[in-house]
Amino acid sequence: MLRIAVSSCYNCLGHLHAGPNEPYPGQQLTNPETAMPSAAPSALEFACRMPKAELHVHIEGTLEPQLAFALARRNGITLPYADEDALRAAYHFADLQSFLDLYYSCASVLRTADDFTDLMLAYLKRAKADQVVHTEIFFDPQTHTARGVPMGTVIEGLIAGIKEGRLRLGISAKLILCFLRHLSEGEAFDTLTEAEPFLDYIDGFGLDSSERGHPPKKFASVFEKCRALGKPVVAHAGEEGPPCYITEALDILKACRIDHGVRAVEDSALLERLVREQVPLTVCPLSNVRLCVYPDMRTHSLPQLLAAGAMVTINSDDPAYFGGYMNDNIRAVQAAFCLDEQTWRRVGRNSIEASWASTEEKAVWLAQLDPVG
Ligand SMILES: [Zn+2]
Known about the structure:
48% of the residues lie in helices and 12% in strands. The protein has 373 residues and is of the alpha/beta class. The chain has one domain (38-369): TIM Barrel (Alpha-Beta Barrel). The longest helix is centred in the middle third of the chain and has 19 residues, at 151-169. It is globular. The chain starts with a helix and ends with a helix. 49% of the residues are buried. Residues 56, 58, 208, 236, 259, 317 line the site of zinc ion (ZN).
């Protein structure tokens, strides 16, 4: 067969022969972004099985339709969708804002500490199945406090889930409190004040929600306060927003990781800096395609970031909404770019090294990633 002759990698066939939206041989038609070819190459198997950290996942974005309806029933809430299928059918997003509108609507089913515990445990189980050994999880308290759910209820529930996850599943997790950037810095300060009694349970601070028109510098003062509290900070930047938002996140907010950062390829000096300083980028491939940052996976900037030597990690962002968890993202990347095992090992190492796990924990996981002998 001509197709076999031009490439020994089954995944690459689609890249060579199919149009941007056409299925390629072996690809399942039900979910093209996450489909796994029938003859999986060993690099893909390695990537799926390697121990890895997930550093960019929003706990509210792990709310699956089944759990959303179960919590709605438990709390006597009516969702504006007839059933789970109707909710899933609404998962067609034109951009980040259209997703956020649905996302905030679904989050309304989260009311009690038990709801947050159930949500956390459901995610940790799913992450564990994808060989995620450690995860640093965003939560958006303003989404809940604005509905009258106390900060303590949210954090108590999430922490109970993390403790149970560690005990039952052996998975390690940390919490990152995110400020909603479409709200004011004053409201972020109010949130920080509410969170201060729970600082022992918060491992860092982040910035998420609608990026365009809300540059990192808008939150310069509140992030200064977060750093003064001794916590590391991260920020979403360079997803829909321009590359200069990445620079602001680094220079003004002093972010130690950039969440997304995929538009860095548009500014060569910035990309050089990210590589030179080895700033971790928490890239979320399926999210970027679902939110139309890229028209399809094959046009994603990931290969350019990797080729430049950037410290790339792969993450699921809001997996319930974007078509998949950690290994679904890995499969989608592999189907588009056919990375080799060495590159996947590097991505795995990046995720562990960029995490806030202890030196001892990192050493254990890194040793598991190294080639035998
Ligand atoms: Zn995100």
